[in-house]
Amino acid sequence: MTITSQDVLLVIDVQNDFCPGGRLAIADGAQVVEPIHRAARRFEHIILTQDWHPGGHLSFASAHPGTHPYETIELSYGPQTLWPDHCVQGSTGAQFVESLALPQAELVLRKGFRRQIDSYSAFFENDKVTSSGLAGYLRDRGLGRVFCTGLAYDFCVGFSALDARKSGFEAMVLKDACRAIDLNGSVARMEENFRNAGVNVIDDLR
Fold it and tell me: 7-52+84-202 has which fold?
């Protein structure tokens, strides 16, 4: 596949808390780093996202007495999966994994910093209305095709790819550079959403 100067590599939430030993560890999460580095060599433009929650965030099960992580509750903006406390602002868990070396990245976009709403996507909060500003940034830079990588395939990566399409961009997911949670069939649901939205899933760029 030919990568051009209008393409951008979006590296999503490759942070300590999503990797082995973290508070919301994804199986083999750290294994995304090598394929991300391999892909990054081909891109002129790279953007990183960073989950960045205040303590007591509404998506944390600990904020809802009597609930447990991975339950789903209804909030003002719709259903919300409750998570273990993770990626708390300024914590070691919120830092990018040490092995991720992308000093050429042009932007670090922090998300999930509003206490009362979660943010899976790099483009919108979970209310599907509040924008992060990323779409405008990409348009201003003349970028038109978004290649999504990182953690997790069936949540933040997937919703970012879907919202890239919603925002008018071509969206690709590099599956070898992602790992999934697969919570109650979330991978199958996300892949159906990909097909319906026109998100292209490719194994790798080789």
Answer: Rossmann fold (3.40.50)
